[in-house]
Amino acid sequence: MMSKTGFTTKALNVPYPKEDPHNALQMPLYEAVAFEFDSAEQIEANFKGEYIAHVYSRSSSPTVEYFEQKLKALTECHGVIAVSSGMAAISNSILAITRSGDNIIAGNRLFGHTLSLFQQTLSEFGLETRFSDLRDANEIETLIDSNTRAIYFETVTNPQLEVSDIELLASVARKHKLLLITDSTITPPNVFRAADFGVNIEVISTTKYISGGATSFGGAIVDHGNFDWTNQPNVKSYTEKFGKNAFLAKIRKNIYRNTGGSMAPQTARYQIQGLDILEIRVERCYKNCMVLSEFLSAHPKVKRVDYPGLPQDKGYKLAQKYFGGVPGTIMSFDLESKEACYSFMNKLKIIRRATNLNDNKSLIIHPDSTIYAEFSEAERAKVNIRNTMMRLSVGIENAGDLIADIEQALD
Ligand SMILES: *Cc1c(COP(=O)(O)O)cnc(C)c1O
After folding, report:
1. Residue 110 CA: which ligand 1 atom is closest?
2. Average pLDDT across the chain, whole number
3. How far apart are CA 7 and CA 189, in angstroms?
4. Which of 143, 191, 272, 295 measures 20 to 30 Å from 265, CA to CA?
5. Spelled out in words, what is the top-level CATH class assigned to the domain 279-410?
6. Mean pLDDT for the stretch of residues 81-109
7. Can you tell me the mean pLDDT for 323-335?
8. Does an H or E element contain 11, and which?
9. Distance CA 33, CA 365 (A)
10. Which ligand 1 atom sits closest to the C-alpha of 217?
11. What is the model's pTM?
């Protein structure tokens, strides 16, 4: 019954974990650090795992719990843990499944700080990352050995806007009993049903779409309940006590509790409302994206447009298959030179010059001179970053105003 309900209707009707004494129509913000017990016996029972209640908000708290339950209902997954940022979701997930001497296989066009996490932070603790463009199953298989713990990829790469072949990755992962983790930030849960294509774990920067429009920082770890954790050497011991919850239990009772990356209740409050309006915001941004990408494609000064929603885009077919044709609402396009890009950006009056994604406002950036500034020219070329390219995150403004802004700035 519930699964047939539309996304927004469902978002608005997820029950609270506990009935509200005042029948409040908004989940209250519980800004409490600690929660009280009725007796010494009850607190003992809680610590033994026999009486479940919130104890201390670094581990769990009511408003954050409601956000987790809402995202769980909307993704129809096994369980969700909300954390302080997208990077916390990624680092907690990788720390839970690896130890020194292990390796993971990852796409070579990753979000910059994810790449830095793998190459700099985690490599110092003995975790190796083996990079691949993840296009060729045979090549991926040559990278796998007995210490490989996961294949990690992004649904659509940013700013190149290349669509991953998720079913190909799922078939390799299944064959080798490896965990398949995706960063699905670009393709929110109303357009992407990760489990349908064999993904086991989603990590999401909820800072982006789910926050409701750049209101707050957050992250989510989504477990689809479709991986046998007895095949995971670093999670296996948790299956004895926690069964199917082994991975989430390891994160909640070890990694995330001990590293302290909890979501703040104030953030959860914003993000609960962000989920209520997610679908309508995505629909509006997508409409704008189509209008803008078609306009840019036809403009003589625009040399190239990458948006897998366009039928002529090389990722169009995969985008239809995996995201119902809505491959997020970010695009990139090229002018003839870096100078032309700067001149264009400086003339914009409505579109803002900023790094974020999926704000309600349209945002533009020149990735080569900013996000990729730390990379050598050769490294940038390898991941297809051109100095003629700009990334546009399309917002909910009126399409005609965005077109007019772009038109005057291209003049
Ligand atoms: C922003 C982003 C992240 C990091 O999320 P934060 O919330 O900024 O920590 C990770 N992956 C992708 C694809 C992102 O866009």
Report:
1. 13
2. 96
3. 9
4. 191
5. alpha beta
6. 98
7. 97
8. helix 7-12
9. 39
10. 7
11. 0.97
